[in-house]
Structures are given as C-alpha cells and as structure tokens.
Amino acid sequence: MKTLYTWSAIALVVTASTAGDILLAKAMREIGDLGLLRQNKGIFAVAARVLGSATFLLALFFMTMAFFSLLIGLSWADVSLVAPAAASLTFVTNAVAAKIFLKENVDRRRWLAAIFVAAGVLLIAH
Amino acid sequence: MNFRKYLVLLSVVLFSSTGDVMLARGMKQIGEIHLTNLGSVFSALGNFWVLLGVCFLFIFFASYLTALSWADLTFVLPATAFSYVMMAFLARSLLHERVSVQRWCGIMLIVAGVGFVAGGPSHTEQAAKAAPPAPELADPEFVKAPK
Fold first, then answer.
1. For residue B125, what pLDDT band results from cuts at 50, 70 and 90?
2. DSSP letter for each residue of B122-143
C-alpha cells in the first residue's frame, strides 16, 4: 500500500513539475536574457519583470504543487528513491513536452542525453 | 556559452543537490505524514533543515531561471543533471545512505548524458538563425551531386 502511495506521489510530482518547467521556460523566453536585463536595468527590474509575468506565476503554482507532493513522498520513502525516480521520468516527459509545446529543436543528441540521464537516475534509485 | 553562464549552471547543480539533501534530513526528523493528516506537511516548514533547504532551493531557482532565460529547457535539464551525482555523494556521506555498484553505474550514465548536451549548442533557435542556408537551397546542383 505504501508503495502505491509513494508512486502516486511520484506521478503527481512528475506531472506538476513538467507543467511547471514548460511554463517556466516559456515565461523566461518571453522575458529574455536575465543577465543582460540586470546589467541594463538592475536587479529590481528583473524581479519586477519575472514576478509580473502571468506565465511565471502559473509555473510557480505547478512547482509548488510538485514541491509539496515531493515532501509527502519523502515522508513515505527514501530521498534516494523518490527524488531520482520523479526526476528520471520528468527528463523524458520534459523532452516530449518541450518539443510539442515549446517547439524546441530536440535533436538526436538531446534525446540521447535525456534518455541517458533518465536511465542513470533510475539506476541510482535502486 | 561563456564563463558567467558556466557559473550559473554550476550554481544550479550545487544548490539543488545540497537543498534536496537538507529537505530529506528535515523530513526524516519529522517522520511520516499520514494521508488522514496531509495538512501536517505545512508544519514541516518549521523545521530548521527544511527551512535551510528551502533557502538553498530558492538560490537554485534563481540560477535556474537565469539559465532558462538564455538556453533551451532541453539543454538546461540534462546539463544540470550532475546534481544527482552530487546528491548520491552527499546522501552517502551526510545521510549515511548506501551507494551500490548499480548506483555508480547510474552516475556514469548521467555523466555521459551531461557530456552529450554540454558539447552541443545551448539554444537551437539562435543557432538555426545564425547558420548559413542549407546547401540544397544555396546550390541547385547540390541535389544532383552523387552521394
């Protein structure tokens, strides 16, 4: 039963963090290079631009969901299972979602990287 | 990619791994959270290690945002996956979790994955715009050339 709880928490973390990551990347792409913005207008302008973005706030909502699901998952199982298992799956779902929603050019090099990292993270989980 | 950008990626790696290990330590002190009492997860925010972990993860988040502002998501994620390697080392030394042969194999795979993207462009859109037109478009004879 505890295994079911753990994997439900992991599934929730994966879904929420994929949504969060995609929205976050979208928000940052809209805002542009934060380093340049800070050089030109200062750190407060950067904070205002980021916090004023609706996409960013929505991303934050999903990431908060992912965070609390992770905390609950951590209370049921080891960090060395929950964190890598959730992350491993998120690498693959993120690559798929980035291609579909962000139209990122996920070439063979990046698919390989995502799959290698996901497999590596899974091995760590055992 | 310049020195500043590598520093940002390094900061993502360092703060996410140490932050996660602190969270884990805090949640182990708190103990199990039962389904009937999910609200008690908020009381975790009163734990010293959870709070410190949250602070570290905040710095991680700021670095992560900066990285996403100039690089693709599918570049940043594998490039910063090295934090899982760090986490395995930290979990072994600080939380006394066991690191088996299988885990070391996992670590090697991650390092290989990081190597794949680290050698490639960080932002494919810009790279595509800057690249000269494909030879097929520039030279009509190209298509007829033997392969």
1. low
2. S-HHHHHHHSPPPHHHH-THHH
Instruction: Give the gap in angstroms from C-alpha A11 to the nearest C-alpha of chain B.
Output: 16
Alpha-carbon B110 to chain mean position: 11
Tell me: pLDDT of B33 over 60: yes
Which residue among B33, B64, B66 places its CB closest to the CB of A72?
B33
What is the rounded distance in angstroms from the CA atom of residue A94 to the CA atom of residue A91?
A: 5
User: Cα-Cα-Cα-Cα dihedral of A88, A90, A91, A93, to 10°?
Assistant: 130
Backbone angles phi, psi at B100, to 5 degrees: -85, 175
Determine contact: A106 vs chain B, CB below 8 A: yes
| Of B20, B72, B124, Cβ closest to residue A79 | B20
Confidence of residue B130 (pLDDT cuts 50, 70, 90): very low
Domain that holds residue A30: 2-125
Please report, to the nearest 10 degrees, the dihedral formed by the alpha carbons of residues A23, A26, A27, A28 taken in order.
120
Separation between Cα atoms, residue B115 and residue A63, nearest integer Å: 27
Confidence of residue B140 (pLDDT cuts 50, 70, 90): very low
Residue of B nearest to A123 (CA): B106
- Facing residue for A116 by CB, picked from B68, B112, B128: B112
Cα–Cα distance, B8 to A28 (Å, whole number): 15
Check CB contact under 8 Å for A78 and B97.
yes
Length of chain B: 147
Distance between CA atoms of residues B111 and A53, nearest Å: 35
Would you state the structure tokens that stand for residue A2, as one six-digit string?
A: 């505890």
- Name the helix (H) or strand (E) containing B101: helix B101-118
Summarize the confidence of residues A15-21 as an average pLDDT: 94
What gap in Å lies between CA A106 and CA A100, rounded to an integer?
Answer: 10
